[in-house]
Amino acid sequence: MSPAHAPHTHVNRLFVLDTNVLMHDPTALFRFQEHDIFLPMVVLEELDHSKKGVSEVARNVRQVSRFMDDLISAAGADAIHSGVLLSSNPMFGNGKAPSGKLLFQTEALNYPAPTGLPGDSPDNTILTVALSLRDKYPERDVILVSKDINLRIKATIVGLKAEDYFNDQVLDDADLLPTGFHELPADFWEAHNKEMESWKEHGHTFYKLFGPLTHEWLPGHFLALPGDQPFQAIVRKKTFDHVIIETIRDFTEPRHAVWGITARNREQNFALNLLMDPDIDFVTMLGAAGTGKTLLTLAAGLAQLLDEQLYKEIIMTRVTVPVGEDIGFLPGTEEEKMAPWMGALMDNLEVLTQPSGGSKWGRSATDEFLMSKIKIKSLNFMRGRTFLNRYIIIDEAQNLTPKQMKTLITRAGPGTKVVCLGNIAQIDTPYLTETSSGLTYVVDRFKGWEHGGHVTLQRGERSRLADYASEHL
């Protein structure tokens, strides 16, 4: 159960926080409602050792220190022994302040270490502190909160309650994420033709619909009615009693090819409609390897950059988390350092620039021209920038935290489109899960926005070998 959703009891719980919880979310101090928080001295020591540097962890640690300093300054030094009221932080002025206290370890808690816990590692010290608190306050429910699975296992072994930190989770289950489309029943038109209106604008057909199913739809979601005469549309607007939907373009037709690429399945067709729609500013695409996320995104970007001239350039970035051992520092400029991480970009450019006839010289000239229009940027230098009329691709977005995702998306200026790609089943960042990833966060928070869209690609189109491997390995 999430500490933030813990039921009210007569005696408030006492949560002992591990260092990694504060490193992960500096606002964790304020996420436990009416319950009290205890910070062992070893946690403060570990925070002090991690405060230097420009990494996300170091920034979080410094923010935690500022929060604690503000709390102590507001409550006074005398409150250290009795507990600092968490509601004294000035960041809470809307009645949502936690009513619990922040307790620090002000004395040595001499508790014999349980048999089987050798040494005096920080984890073992936190365990003995939590056990001594359980004995000191037998009427209270003492719970250790940690992102470290092994520490939670050790706590359970020695008879101590332990929980993961759940407040960073966007959803209880990743399966609750929207797919971005709804498949309509065969009798859809019969059940929803009452009071229906239809009209045409700029070659597109619009429908104003009333009915029971319309309550489940959100703007930016797609509708599909399979059959002999398939119908596909996107929800444009939704009010309390009706929705307005618009038919979409069929990118499976060769005459509607985008930079030579046609959609091979229904979900790819939905994705291309989002990518090619100038009224959609933010697109998220989930899908396993080989579903075509990067290829479709790059093809749509090049078509709008060079053919329609909607954007000045394409900017591609991704978090640099290695799958295996790190190979050390890389030489060169920012783009040269990022090049090894951009293999997907080069592979897809090779597909998009394959000439039907031309010479090697023509191919080389085309590649050089396209690369001049595509900028590879590192996440490290995004803070403070504003991108105007750019097509921004954030690849491997599942490895970003919600805070990093916010930093990136808020860089977008007028005329900029942001596309986030990823597979939440392949997260390489420590302490991030499918339900706490930044990609999950933005998919959930942007659902229902009229200028945003999401689609989950389900079918691999890379090769029969890749499809078989995905299913059987």
TrEMBL record:
It comes from the Bacteria. Pfam families: PhoH, PIN_4. In the N-terminal section; belongs to the PINc/VapC protein family. The keyword Transcription does not apply. CDD domains: PIN_VapC_PhoHL-ATPase. The keyword Nucleotide-binding applies. PANTHER family: PIN DOMAIN-CONTAINING PROTEIN, PROTEIN PHOH. GO terms for cellular component: cytosol. GO terms for molecular function: ATP binding. Keywords: ATP-binding, Nucleotide-binding. This is PhoH-like ATPase. Residues 13-153 form the PIN domain.
